[in-house]
Amino acid sequence: MKETKPSLYTLSFFLLCLSNFLFSASFSMIIPELPDYLASLGGKEYIGYTIALFTLAAGLSRPFSGKLTDHVGRIPIMAFGSLVCFICGGLYPLLHTVQGFLFLRFIHGMSTGTKPTATAAYVADVIPEDRRGEAQGSLGIFTATGMSIGPAIGSFLASTYGLDQMFYISSVFALASILILSRMKETLPPTMKSRLKLSLFRIGWKDVFEPKIIPVFWIMLFVSFSAGAMITLIPDTSKIVGWTNKGLYFTIYTVSSIVIRFFFSKASDQYGRIPVLIFGCFMLSLSMFLLVFSANSYLMIISAIIYGVAWGFNTPTLAAWTNDLGDKNHMGRAMATMYIALEAGIGIGAYVSGEIYQGIPNHIPIPFLIAGLLSLLAFLLLWKKKQAWTYGI
């Protein structure tokens, strides 16, 4: 008799996906409006900091979230990440200075520095090795849907009801994400659990970096620069080409990413992590090079579609590759290392883009050119190292 594989789609996995959807919608909802909001406070020259500070805090919190995930539990750390989103969403309308806004952006970044790490570790606990790519792709559909719907909802709320209401609704989404987690079962084995104590916050180098996933670290670092450039510059680029909804590019690329994950979630399980990443990095570089010449809506749309295809392949594959290579007893640390590379790439991309842009439209193509070259570098590195970096799958 043919052996039947257990279903991925258990209640716990569905609840995890739903929580991720709400969490992603919560923090992405406000992104398209942040440049104009900061400018209205008198801080237009700090636009690059809106994402850079967010990702800096996320990167700094990764080592702590990885260690706490491996000792305190997956669910408490996921809940903490959503709690930060909930609190920050309610505080944005109360802070009306540039300094207050930037400080809150830094605190808000702790949310994505904690919840995704614990979420990825939870997936590694409950999913068989030969279906990790599929599981990460399925989870990514919900995450990408939240990130797609979030900006569109945010722009609609801001234009219809005002920025304060947009911030409050984002807070409600985060609260719902927390409530869902209460219905899930902890997967960290009792033998590995310990109570929350001060010693867990003492971080050494071994808590910061998982050396087994060095290949993942470099590829993630190179490709995520594009995300920082895109998040920082697309809102103003959209206005230049005449789009009234600054979240439209985000919506198009995320819908494209969802479609790719829906039909090709098993691709890296079937064909290998490296071949899929080679294709994804090539598509990402193509998307960025198109933005260098994006003088009209058509090129913007094509770029957004290709960008979605690239991330639809890259994100779940890099997460599955991390699961393959990481220490099974320290999966939180392995996922934290991957996300440190993600946040570092996004933060550097956002900061560099903001510094180059400085509100001058003619400077916009330069960061996109840099992002395209870095993605091409990742493509070449994978091509050259494909034999050495192929570990079993």
Automatic annotation (TrEMBL):
CDD domains listed in its UniProt record: MFS_YfcJ_like
Recorded superkingdom: Bacteria
Residue ranges occupied by any Major facilitator superfamily (MFS) profile domain in the UniProt entry: 12-390
One Pfam assignment: MFS_1
Transmembrane segments: 7-31, 46-65, 77-95, 166-184, 216-235, 247-264, 276-295, 301-322, 334-352, 364-383
Keyword vocabulary terms for this entry: Membrane, Transmembrane, Transmembrane helix
Protein name: MFS transporter
Source organism of this protein record: Aquirufa novilacunae
Lineage: Bacteria, Pseudomonadati, Bacteroidota, Cytophagia, Cytophagales
